[in-house]
Amino acid sequence: MGEFFPAPIFFEGTVFEFNRMTLVRLVATAALVAIFWVVTNRARLVPGRAQNIAEMGLDFVRVNIAEEILGKQHARPFIPLLTTMFFAIFALNITGVIPFLNIASTSVVAVPLLLAVASFVAFIYAGIKAHGAFGYLRTTLFPSGVPWPIYIILAPIELLSTFVLRPATLTIRLMANMLAGHLLLVLFFGMTHWLFLEAGGALKGVGVITLGAAIAFTVFEIFISALQAYIFTLLTAVYINLSQEAH
């Protein structure tokens, strides 16, 4: 568990404290920016392999998340946010299986919470822009077509669900999945190391099984890294759509 809270490297005890987790975040961010910088600067009418992969990724977010959920008319203002969110989360997740980095910086609460706040601001902004501040609160807390006594129960539920549980569940889902994945990888690779180098007799053979499990969980963690980026971005789009549309 100590890997999630590494010792400070610089500026210990200040708000600018820099540790291994911060370094991993900077490496992931720099790599993501560099990849898209190189691809866009070398963009051609007939795309090469790298440009084609980048365009497929961008089109996936635009078509399968933004336009699919929000519709073409409403999607355009939010495509930059959703695209940045998807690729940033994936980059910060995938560091958990990259040698010498070996930890997803989304496995501690700071980054998932920051992303959830960005999602929260986006869907509140979308709701206010579509309905006005008072209109958004009214359509959210007091949906039409409900007998007025039900509002006594419904309004607090909608208030908690929309303004508390949405950002909370976005944060916890992303953090918990990446934390659990890291613990599984550490468990099986650590077990394999012990069985091969320190265990005696027939126990060494069990190391082959744990090594196979470690490799399988590594592949699974790559899938989870992409899946969690997709789910987080998809739910953000869904929340924006719910804010724009009256109940």
From TrEMBL:
Classification via InterPro entries: ATP_synth_F0_asu (IPR000568), ATP_synth_F0_asu_AS (IPR023011), ATP_synth_F0_asu_bact/mt (IPR045083), F0_ATP_A_sf (IPR035908)
Transmembrane segments: 21-39, 78-101, 108-128, 148-165, 177-197, 209-242
Alphabetically ordered keywords of this record: ATP synthesis, Cell membrane, CF(0), Hydrogen ion transport, Ion transport, Membrane, Transmembrane, Transmembrane helix, Transport
Keyword Cell membrane: yes
GO cellular component: plasma membrane; proton-transporting ATP synthase complex
CDD domains, per the entry: ATP-synt_Fo_a_6 (cd00310)
Subcellular location: Cell membrane; Membrane
Main location: membrane
GO molecular function terms listed in the Swiss-Prot or TrEMBL record: proton-transporting ATP synthase activity, rotational mechanism
Gene3D superfamilies: ATP synthase, F0 complex, subunit A
Short name of one Pfam family: ATP-synt_A
Membrane-topology annotation of the record: Multi-pass membrane protein
NCBIfam families named in the record: ATP_synt_6_or_A
Similarity field: Belongs to the ATPase A chain family.
Primary role: Key component of the proton channel; it plays a direct role in the translocation of protons across the membrane.
Name assigned to this protein: ATP synthase subunit a
Name of the coding gene: atpB
